[in-house]
Amino acid sequence: MRSIWRTLDRALARDIGLVCLADCLVGVSYGAIAVSSGFPLWAPMLMSLLVFAGASQFMFVGIIAAGGNPFAAVLAGLLVNARHLPFGFALGDVLGKRWAARIAGSHLMIDESVAFALAEKDAHRRRAAYWACGIGLFVSWNAGVLIGAYAGTAISDTDAFGLDAAFPAVLLALVLPALKDRAARLPVLVGVVVALVATPFMPAGLPVLLALAGVLVGVAVKEPELQEVA
Amino acid sequence: MDGMELLVGTVVLALGTFAFRFAGPVLRSRAKLSPKAERLMALAAIVLLAALVAVSALTEGDSFAGVARPAGVLVGGVLAWRKAPFVLVVVAAAATAALLRLTGVP
Q1: CA neighbours within 13 Å on the CB side: how many for B82?
Q2: If DSSP states are collapsed to H, E and C, what string results for A24-93?
Q3: Which chain A residue has its CA at the smallest distance from B63's CA?
Q4: In this structure, which of A165, B18, B84, B100 has its CB flanked by the most CB atoms within 10 Å?
Q5: What count of CB pairs under 8 Å joins A to B?
Q6: What ipTM does this complex have?
Q7: Per the confidence metrics, is the pTM higher than 0.80?
Q8: What pLDDT, in 10s, does the model give residues A18-75?
Q9: What residue of A is the nearest CA neighbor of B67?
Q10: Are A63 and A76 within 8 A, CB to CB?
Q11: CA–CA separation, A175 vs A116, rounded Å?
């Protein structure tokens, strides 16, 4: 653990800290929205500790608050969270080889920690970024939800602060360098178009998964080139 | 709201989510992947994150997210592309969306 903090330089720590702050505020709004829509205090807090995936938590609370049944809420949440499966394959050894590290590291797997890790080239920095972001967000998200659940609707409209624009901007800034690799551009473009086209017609979560079609297109386009060389 | 139903729902969602998260690291450690397969896995994650950026920047539910949010993300994206510091990218994206809303832009 100590080597993580040594590898982590100031700039990276500051970037991660900013994301933690933003997510903490979103956590405040989540706690406040859950409690003000009639959930008991423990519900958003327990869910933030055990599920720890913002989009699916908002979805779960939204469906139940609108009178939907818990079964539908669970299914919708699982669909939103299914992208963690390919994330886990991409991360590889970042979590380490010990079982305790794999279990804890898996629980800390969220969009931001994955994006921060993949944005680093060096294996040590990759690991440091993943753990620092994962732990930092786990603490700040849960702290935010706790505050929101008790403080009520102090910050329920994070859109007023533009925080809804901050989340995509964070991921965009982290993903952009990967597009320097020309081989990544077509798959990303196809994936983005597929996801956007599918969004009006499909339940949340599925359009993002369908973006993986972009990877298939990338493979299909690349094969003939390889054969020509051979 | 039935407390027991909430508790069970939370635990089932938590277990399912953990299974998704845990499967990758565990299955990957069992087989040695070729460098090509590893590149594909990394590419898949990048494609997913990029799709997540597009969907969360442009849509809300199943309709258009309005103007302020996409404008904010666009400002952030241009700054990131011009290699501006990460903090500036994020703050500018949020500030753009917030200011636009303050002036009545949806």
Answers
A1: 8
A2: HHHHHHHHHHHHHCCCCCHHHHHHHHHCCCHHHHHHHHHHHHCCCCHHHHHHHHHHHHCCHHHHHHHHHH
A3: A200
A4: A165
A5: 279
A6: 0.94
A7: yes
A8: 999 999 999 999 999 999 889 999 999 999 999 999 999 999 999 999 998 899 999 9
A9: A165
A10: yes
A11: 9
